[in-house]
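Async update (no meeting this week)

Hi team, since we skipped the sync, here's where things stand on the single-chain job. The sequence we agreed to prioritize is pasted below, unchanged from the tracker. I ran it this morning and attached the output directly underneath so nobody has to dig for it. Comments welcome in thread, and please keep replies under the output.
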Amino acid sequence: MEQALEYLAFSPPGWGGNLLRGLLSTLQIAFGAYALGLCLGLCGALGKIYGGPVTRWGLEIYTTLIRAVPELVLILLLYYAGTDLLNTALESFGYERVDIDGLWAGIYVIGFVQGAYSTEVFRAAFQAVPTGQIEAARAIGMSPFKSHTRVVIPAMIPFAIPGLANLWLITTKDTALLAVVGFSELLLETKQAAGGTKSYLLFYCAAAVLYLLVTLCSNVIFGQIERHYRRGQPAQT
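Output:
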């Protein structure tokens, strides 16, 4: 027990500080990727519902491909191939090659993947809004933009929150996949601590507890958000 506490201490030779730094990096990537995914998803859903044939066709390819390929493969493909394509483009325009920061690369890669899933969550939520509410907004003279910002989107949010909460939890766990490309997040810090001390059970259990705490806190926050947007609506059974 004393040795376990010594290993988990925040000051050297303990590894507790490293685990917390890894957790902070995990949360930074998750927040950034989730925000990017929401933006892509909202635009994608609007494009699928209101866009022309070419837009809907392009978005269908995007969501189908992303959801069909394993996320680890996508992360490896987008991380390495994306970096090569960017540097090739820069060199073709006479600029020097750049080294992409691991934090931003992780945000872009996971956010791009989550955008496909968010697109379908938002599309289903938009289509769940009763058409009578939209027709009522148009009947009192609201423009399409105003009817969406004041009626459709507020009415759509309660339908989207459960799916978006699941996507947030998936995003936090997807950050662990970045360990394969060498980015220092919680899983990689845990692997280094376990390898350095040979206390694999201790550190992987500690990492699992940290992921569980993130999940429990997230459930509380999303529960509060859902109750806020469902206020005045009949309780769900």
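Quick observations from my side:
The mean pLDDT is 86.
The radius of gyration is 22 Å.
Reply here if anything looks off.
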